[in-house]
Design goal:
Mean pLDDT: 96
Strand order of the largest sheet: 3-2-1-4-5-6-7
Number of strands: 7
Shape: globular
């Protein structure tokens, strides 16, 4: 069975992806900051016949990352790493002129440094399998939206890390994946009090990522909209 690490799997897009992989015979290592929500995903995935190791915690915590590394090492090779865990930052979204620097530091810790640290720690296992790295990005990394300077710039930095990694580690497929707007808790926090029911569900976006993972395409930045 192929093995995947999916971060931020307790809800939203990470949950939808984890359950899709579970239904297709993948062995999963999943994490999330809400232990109860993670347990619910684990139970649902196991009902689909998957072997699941749930590791509750925050990807910005070095000790939690070590626990993920140990879980992956116990399974040998790693076929897929999905860096889905992310943070929006303050809500409502502040303009850059008033953005609290400590909050911005936390956004970069979660959205840039933690994904790179996970790639570094899991690279040997990914190399053994000739695996795939996917990090979830955003159109805010390439477009200039008022209020999105903190989150968007963190995703732009993540995109650039992936471009460089693709050159430095050419034997792996390294993708930045932009899912577009989705009906998630994070997206709701970005638009407090607004109705976002018109956004697509996370599960409707998962097939686009699955096609990308299976495509064998060169490393790069891809949008779900290009796979619909």
């Amino acid at each position: 069975m192929p093995v995947a690490v999916v971060t931020g799997a307790s809800r939203g897009f990470g949950r939808a992806l984890a359950l899709d992989l579970a239904a297709n015979g993948w062995t999963l290592i999943i994490d999330g900051r809400d232990p109860q929500a993670l347990d619910d995903v684990t139970s649902a995935a196991e009902e689909l016949g998957a072997n699941v190791r749930a590791v509750p915690g925050d990807v910005t915590d070095p000790l939690h990352r070590v626990a993920l590394f140990e879980a992956a090492a116990s399974l040998g090779a790693l076929d897929l790493l999905v860096n889905n865990a992310s943070t929006l930052g303050p809500s409502p979204l502040p303009a850059l002129e008033a953005y609290p620097i400590d909050e911005l530091r936390s956004v970069y810790e979660a959205n840039v440094l933690a994904p790179l640290a996970l790639i570094q720690g899991l690279l040997a296992a990914l190399r053994r399998a000739g695996g795939v790295v996917v990090s979830v990005t955003s159109d805010a990394s390439v477009e200039s939206y008022a209020g999105w300077g903190g989150y968007g710039s963190s995703k732009a930095a993540l995109d650039q890390l992936h471009r460089v990694l693709a050159v430095e580690v050419p034997e792996l497929a390294i993708y930045a994946f932009d899912p577009g707007d989705m009906r998630t808790d994070m997206h709701q926090a970005a638009f407090p009090g607004e109705d976002i029911s018109d956004r697509p569900s996370p599960s409707s976006v998962v097939p686009a990522l699955r096609r990308l993972i299976d495509s064998g395409l060169p490393s790069g930045r891809y949008r779900a909209a290009d796979w619909s």
